[in-house]
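#structure-requests
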Amino acid sequence: MFRRNRADREFREAQRAGQAVLAMHTELPLPDCPSPGSQAAPTPAAPESTVVPDFLPADFRAPSRQDVSGFMMRWDLPLIVDGEVHQCHCGAYRNWIVFNMRDDSVWLRCESDHETKEARLDTAWYNRNSGPVDHFHPTLDEGLRHLGQ
């Protein structure tokens, strides 16, 4: 009982200290920020001043979804779709490569290189089950080699 009262008291004291800090910052005028009423009319930029873009250079940007043909991931466990284990016509039911294409279709590839479009899976399923993108590959073969096929 006393331990809970002490914890509650310490929590309330921390809250009061935080509120005091917030109140202190709202009362003091910030030296770098002009007041809203004292803004001067905008002046045209001088021709010799250069505008620096506020975005990363193209070399540092990650490709967007429209820049790539699709995404791929390994799926080593049996793939269960609508409550049943998905199986290839060759009999494979695990160790899939799952492709999420630019047109939001999902394709499956078994170890024997059979590919089939799976209409019951979509981009939302892929995004829920895939991890972060760790590599970008210029060709499909390099991507498959990276995933071990």
